[in-house]
Amino acid sequence: MTVKTLVLCSLVLFCACGPGGAAPLDGSLTAVMDVAYDRATLEATDGYLSLRFLKKRGEVEDTVLKVGVIIDGKVPDHSVQFDLAEAMSGGQRGTATRNVLEDPDHTVFPRLSRGLFRADGDLTKAKTVQGEVSLTFVQGNETASGRAVFGTFQAELVR
């Protein structure tokens, strides 16, 4: 094998690993909308966590999926796991939204029939956290109805 062939094969394998090394989101939702992302951020504030999957579009970023989680009290200094479909006063613990310029008709998702959010580490001090998210939407007439999206993530903590 020549050096040129070896370099070309290495480049092809590197490019196949996905954008920026981000683990892709998977599930039946990917058949009806693009949820590919370049990076993820997790904003932790008292009472709320906001996980955003972002994709570059020129000088700005689209939010291809945002998962909001209502938490009890202050930002936890430990790993957390939440049932996003849990009923709370005023709605569910978890919500999903989207803000993509070229897809203005799909900004809000249906209620969740099942959902999981997990973040590993100290959410008050860490620079990045790893975790997992899994959403299954209730049946209905909207585009995402009855569909699921899931995956692991590494997110930059935003304060």
Q: Strand content of the residues, in percent? A: over 45%
Instruction: State the shape.
Output: globular
Number of DSSP strands?
Answer: 10
Provide a count of the helices. Answer: 1
Radius of gyration: 17 Å
**Would you tell me the overall average pLDDT?**
89
Write down the secondary-structure element order: HEEEEEEEEEE
The end-to-end distance, rounded to whole angstroms, is: 50 Å
Instruction: Output the structural class.
Output: mainly beta
Tell me the count of domains.
1
- In oligomeric terms, what are we looking at? single chain
Strand order of the largest sheet: 4-8-9-10-1-2-3-7
Q: Helicity range of the residues? A: under 10%
- Major β-sheet profile: 8 strands, mixed
* Uncertain segments: 1-20
Blueprint (SSEs and pairs):
Elements: H1 3-16, E1 39-45, E2 48-57, E3 60-70, E4 80-83, E5 87-88, E6 91-92, E7 94-99, E8 112-120, E9 128-137, E10 148-158
Parallel strand pairs: 1-10
Antiparallel strand pairs: 1-2, 2-3, 3-7, 4-8, 5-6, 8-9, 9-10
